[in-house]
């Protein structure tokens, strides 16, 4: 050790005393004392140089400890003017360390720097250059550019090298100082320098330029760089540049970085690089020193960065896999990183090393574990996911590091969603995952999982429902952690109750199991809420029989101290009454035609009352002001006159409407001030309170707003979306969230589409009232899923039946059991639907047509009869009113040629009706049959991929059929 | 490029501080403190590299750390820089210190901040490693020292 013999005892003492302090306060005391001494001493004149030097070193020390030493800055600048190299160097160092680029003191330095840059003493120049590199700023960049550029041709390589670097900084600060051409020339001369060290510095400049994006400009230089790399690896450079007998490793690394940028996404350039890259990698592989590995790593980065080449990728993966087996964690880390790079190009080469990678998870090094997990996540696919997830779950079980476990948990669930081979596997893995990582289950995880389940359930139907209900009811027999119990409750309540809607035995069994859980040891009261909710859902099933038990339970929890529990218990208790009452409701028929009034009407007419003729008013609506008939005014009154009160426009008619829908006194249509905000145009129901309230747990839509409470709760239950945001799941009903695409699914879709196209005219005619009634109930069912549910005749429709009950409460839907006109259509429905699944057996359908004449008739209508339409001049409000009055709604989603608004307008023109309003991709139109003057309302939503959603509401169902057929013929 | 180069004593005191990008003094100290805390994660067999996941300097950056005697050498580097290259660079710096101070120790760094910084300035200019040839650097530094002594 060369102790500072030339340094005074003072500095030594200062350092020693600071070293001995035990607290920050003590340290501060010493420093404050020292600073004061320094301040007075620095002001003394004629201080010996040695003393000044020591004082500045003290100042550096003080500043290093985080204290302010700004009083010394001016002395540092003075020192730079010293003639002694030692003091000058210290002066420049202090300036570099103490001063910011925007310090006002810098201006005092410029003249000294200018002078020193032109000095004949190499070391003064070098020190000045170093200081310029650190301190140069926009304000005085111009003053220094000239002397720096001159130094590029200095006789000493150290100066040329540093001048190059400073030139780069100058150009970064101000592009105008050096012209682009000039700059390029100068770096080119840099790489042609006879000294390799200057050449190395110039590489940095190229690298920086390339990083900034000037790739194309330098592509012609690829050959030069390649040959340089070749020369380096062939030991053509002087031995001095060897590092542990490895030729100029840092230059190799730099060149590889440059080549990576040049060859990215460019086959032609990459082809020039492949050969030298292979050789470099081989030679680097032969060494066993760290820096050799560094070059290997850089080669791998280059290989994965340029246009991929198979054999090189293979070579790279092999080289890197050796890193993984090394004892050295640094190498393992780099190996993992390198493989992560390769995997993003091609998984193939990495998969061989799968098990080695998995073993890295056993490491005790945090960084390494994290990286490994990242890599495994990236390389998992359908084939290896079982193995990898199993391994990961093993680590989840055994690990004690909770951060790592959390990471694992998240990654496993993502992988499971993405790659699980079968649904069964998915559910089982999810359950194991929840078991070992139950502490990580939060609302997000849960809701996400529920959404996956319900999406799958909607897609696949009852089979899946039975399957998961089985699994989860099995689970119920064990002791469960609360977090898992919540999930089980949800599944049983949501899906179990739908699946076994008609099966009293199963329902009893499930209810028993759930009730037992109430007596088990629970961690928190919120779990009870979940159980109660589950029971409430179960009791809404049609075949539910255990009302006495559930009522007793709800009654018990009505006294609960937990507000959430209490509220739920009260709500569900009330609901239980309704549920019981509704048991009989399936036999109640509501007669929308109100035939029971016929006698009364007859009587009145005999007394001389005017007959009620709805078509008159529809006509009026359709033709607007064009009719001469003194009918109702459909043109809006001015606001002042109207007074904002919309009722009354329709007179008695309107009143009838509003009484039917007490919760929506004003016209409750989808179109409001903010635009169209619901998919289903006429919602004759109170809207579901979407943010399901009550308590902290999600789910359970008990809305406490007076009379609608019961309805809304039941709706949310009936629609099978309790616990999830109903609207959201509807609007985000896109395939991308579907985690488990069953293998046959796309095919099925295709078939459906085909069937849809082939048989749509028929099936459309079949979608008579009974159908649409069901559909209205299930708001969550996207139109495209209808076919799916129609295939499995009875089972999957059960949710709809609950929904049907709901509709009964809302009165104005036509009902399945209908008056004399419809039975034919009703009976044929079952058969004609069939072609969608059994489309290989058309015989059945034909047979059917033979003995059900009317079907054939209906089918032929669109072709035989030519109808014409006239535009209806109505406004949006009138449209809505008309829409609610007519219930012959036909819904269909088609694959069409219509991809823009223009296309849509063309279609509307062809039909010859008119557009009433356009909002984004949704358009509403209205018209009337030219002959019968019956009204036709059309709602359409197109999308850029050609999927066209149509809803046609017409007084005469034949009009809707005709228009649909027309659209299909001409626009699909 | 290298963003930060620090030498820190095992007692958590800064011995050399070089920031190669403009960073405010207050933030410099924050960064230093966090890096010092990070040194506790370094054990003889553990990996010397860290990703700056917490954004101590910048989330894209990597941190290379190495322990010699009583000193931690810490470099914050950007995504392009080779971790292993920097690790060997630190080795290089330590070798050079040994040659210049004749078996270097922490006190040398304290007593000779000018020499230490001059050494680093020879290797890293504006955050970029310009010279890695120990012989060249040693030669340049020797010349400077002899000139200083002669005057």
UniProtKB/TrEMBL annotation, chain A:
GO terms for biological process: intracellular protein transport; vesicle-mediated transport. The keyword Transport applies. It is found in: Endomembrane system; Membrane, Coated pit. The keyword Endoplasmic reticulum does not apply. Residues 653-673, 698-718 are annotated as: Disordered. Its main location: membrane. InterPro entries: Adaptor_Complx_Large_Subunit, AP2_complex_asu, AP4E1_C, Clathrin/coatomer_adapt-like_N. SMART domains: AP4E_app_platf. It holds the Pfam family Adaptin_N. One of its GO terms (cellular component) is membrane coat. It is a peripheral membrane protein. Keywords: Coated pit, Endocytosis, Membrane, Protein transport, Transport. Residues 870-972 form the AP-4 complex subunit epsilon-1 C-terminal domain. Residues 653-664 have a biased composition (Polar residues). Residues 698-710 have a biased composition (Low complexity). Signal peptide: none annotated. Belongs to the adaptor complexes large subunit family. Adaptins are components of the adaptor complexes which link clathrin to receptors in coated vesicles. Clathrin-associated protein complexes are believed to interact with the cytoplasmic tails of membrane proteins, leading to their selection and concentration. This is AP-2 complex subunit alpha. It comes from Paramecium sonneborni.
UniProtKB/TrEMBL annotation, chain B:
GO terms for cellular component: endomembrane system. Transmembrane segments: none annotated. Residues 1-145 form the AP complex mu/sigma subunit domain. GO terms for biological process: protein transport. It holds the Pfam family Clat_adaptor_s. The keyword Membrane applies. It comes from the Eukaryota. Keywords: Membrane, Protein transport, Transport. The keyword Disulfide bond does not apply. It is found in: Endomembrane system. PANTHER family: ADAPTOR COMPLEXES SMALL SUBUNIT FAMILY (PTHR11753). Belongs to the adaptor complexes small subunit family. This is AP complex subunit sigma.
């Amino acid at each position: 050790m060369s102790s500072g013999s030339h340094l005074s005892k003072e500095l030594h003492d200062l350092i020693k005393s600071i070293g001995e302090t035990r607290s920050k306060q003590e340290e501060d005391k010493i420093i404050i004392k020292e600073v004061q001494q320094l301040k007075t001493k620095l002001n003394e004149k004629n201080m010996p140089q040695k003393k000044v030097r020591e004082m500045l070193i003290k100042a550096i020390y003080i500043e290093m400890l985080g204290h302010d030493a700004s009083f010394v800055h001016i002395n540092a600048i003075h020192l730079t003017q010293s003639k002694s190299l030692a003091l000058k160097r210290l002066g420049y160092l202090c300036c570099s360390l103490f001063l910011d680029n925007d310090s006002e003191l810098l201006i005092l330095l410029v003249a000294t720097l200018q002078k020193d840059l032109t000095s004949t003493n190499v070391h003064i120049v070098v020190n000045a250059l170093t200081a310029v590199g650190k301190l140069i700023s926009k304000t005085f960049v111009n003053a220094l550019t000239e002397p720096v550029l001159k130094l590029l041709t200095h006789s000493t390589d150290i100066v040329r090298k540093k001048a190059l670097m400073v030139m780069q900084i100058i150009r970064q600060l101000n592009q105008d100082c050096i012209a682009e051409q000039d700059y390029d020339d100068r770096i080119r001369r840099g790489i042609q320098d006879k000294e390799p060290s200057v050449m190395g510095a110039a590489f940095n400049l190229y690298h920086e330029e390339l990083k900034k994006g000037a790739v194309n400009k330098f592509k012609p230089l690829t050959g030069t760089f390649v040959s340089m790399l070749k020369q380096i690896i062939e030991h053509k450079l002087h031995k001095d540049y060897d590092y542990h007998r490895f030729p100029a490793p840092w230059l190799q690394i730099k060149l590889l970085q440059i080549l990576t940028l040049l060859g990215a996404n460019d086959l032609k350039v990459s082809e020039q690089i492949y050969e030298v890259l292979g050789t470099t990698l081989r030679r680097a592989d032969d060494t066993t020193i760290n820096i050799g590995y560094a070059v290997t790593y850089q080669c791998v980065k280059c290989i994965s960065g340029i246009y991929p080449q198979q054999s090189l990728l293979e070579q790279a993966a092999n080289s890197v896999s050796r890193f993984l087996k090394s004892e050295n964690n640094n190498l393992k880390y780099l190996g993992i990183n390198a493989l992560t790079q390769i995997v993003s190009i091609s998984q193939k080469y990495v998969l061989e090393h799968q098990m080695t990678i998995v073993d890295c998870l056993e490491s005790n090094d945090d960084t390494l574990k994290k990286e490994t997990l990242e890599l495994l996540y990236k390389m998992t696919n359908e084939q290896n996911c079982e193995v990898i997830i199993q391994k990961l779950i093993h680590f989840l079980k055994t690990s004690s590091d909770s951060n790592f476990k959390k990471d694992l948990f998240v990654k496993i669930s993502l992988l499971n969603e993405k790659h699980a081979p079968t649904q069964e596997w998915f559910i089982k893995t999810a359950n194991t995952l929840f078991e070992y990582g139950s502490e990580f289950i939060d609302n997000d995880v849960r809701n996400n999982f529920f959404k996956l389940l319900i999406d799958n359930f909607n897609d696949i139907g009852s089979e899946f429902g039975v399957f998961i209900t089985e699994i989860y009811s099995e689970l119920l027999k064990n002791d469960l952690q609360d977090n898992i119990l919540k999930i089980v409750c949800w599944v049983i309540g949501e899906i179990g109750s739908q699946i076994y809607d008609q099966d009293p035995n199963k329902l009893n069994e499930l209810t028993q199991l759930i009730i037992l859980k109430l007596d088990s040891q629970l961690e928190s009261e919120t779990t009870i809420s979940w159980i109660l909710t589950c029971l409430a859902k179960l009791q809404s099933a049609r075949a539910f029989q255990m009302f006495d038990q559930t009522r007793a339970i709800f009654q018990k929890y009505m006294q609960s101290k937990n507000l959430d529990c209490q509220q739920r218990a009260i709500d569900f208790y009330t609901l239980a009454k309704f549920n019981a009452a509704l048991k009989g409701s399936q036999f109640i028929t509501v007669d929308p035609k109100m035939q029971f009034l016929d006698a009364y009407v007859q009587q009145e007419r005999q007394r001389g009352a005017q007959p009620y003729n709805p078509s008159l008013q529809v006509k009026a609506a359709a033709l607007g002001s064009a009719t001469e008939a003194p009918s109702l005014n459909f043109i809006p009154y001015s606001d002042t006159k109207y007074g904002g009160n919309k009722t009354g426009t329709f007179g008695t008619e309107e009143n009838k409407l509003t009484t039917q829908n007490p919760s929506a006194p004003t016209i409750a249509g989808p179109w409001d001030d903010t635009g169209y905000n619901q998919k289903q145009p006429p919602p004759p129901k109170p809207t579901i309170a979407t943010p399901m309230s009550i308590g902290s747990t999600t789910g359970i839509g008990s809305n406490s707003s007076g009379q609608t409470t019961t309805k809304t709760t039941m709706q949310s239950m009936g629609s099978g979306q309790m616990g999830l945001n109903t609207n959201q799941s509807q609007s985000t009903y896109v395939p991308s969230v579907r985690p488990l695409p069953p293998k046959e699914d796309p095919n099925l879709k295709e078939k459906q589409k085909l069937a849809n196209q082939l048989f749509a005219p028929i099936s459309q005619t079949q979608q008579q009232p009974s159908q649409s009634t069901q559909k209205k109930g299930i708001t969550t069912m996207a139109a495209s899923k209808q076919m799916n549910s129609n295939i499995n005749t009875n089972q999957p429709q059960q949710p709809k039946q609950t929904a049907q009950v709901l509709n009964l409460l809302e009165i104005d839907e036509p009902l399945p059991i209908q008056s004399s006109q419809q039975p034919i259509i009703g009976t044929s429905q079952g058969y004609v639907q069939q072609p969608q699944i059994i489309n290989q057996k058309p015989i059945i359908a034909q047979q059917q047509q033979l003995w059900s004449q009317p079907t054939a008739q209906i089918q032929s209508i669109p072709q035989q009869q030519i109808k014409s339409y006239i535009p209806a001049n109505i406004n949006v409000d009138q449209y809505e009113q008309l829409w609610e009055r007519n219930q012959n709604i036909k819904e269909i989603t088609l694959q069409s040629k219509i991809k823009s608004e223009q296309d849509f307008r063309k279609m509307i023109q062809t039909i010859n009706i008119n557009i009433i309003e356009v909002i984004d991709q949704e358009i509403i139109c209205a018209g009337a049959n030219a002959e019968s003057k019956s009204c036709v309302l059309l709602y359409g939503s197109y999308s850029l991929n050609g999927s066209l959603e149509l809803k046609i509401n017409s007084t005469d169902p034949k009009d809707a059929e005709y228009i649909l057929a027309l659209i299909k013929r001409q626009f699909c | 490029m290298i963003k930060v180069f620090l030498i820190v004593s095992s007692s958590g005191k800064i011995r050399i501080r070089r920031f190669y990008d403009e960073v405010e003094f207050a933030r410099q100290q924050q960064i230093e403190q966090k890096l010092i805390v990070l040194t506790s994660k370094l054990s003889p067999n553990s990996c010397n590299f860290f990703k700056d996941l917490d954004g101590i300097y910048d989330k894209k950056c990597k941190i290379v750390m190495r322990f010699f005697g009583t000193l931690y050498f810490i470099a914050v580097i950007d995504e392009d820089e080779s971790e292993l290259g920097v690790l060997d660079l630190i080795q290089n710096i330590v070798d050079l210190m040994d040659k210049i101070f004749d078996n270097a120790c922490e006190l040398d760094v304290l007593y000779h901040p000018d020499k230490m910084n001059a050494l680093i300035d020879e290797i890293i200019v504006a955050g970029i490693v310009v010279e890695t040839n120990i012989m060249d650097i040693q030669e340049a530094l020797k010349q400077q020292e002899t000139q200083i002594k002669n005057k």
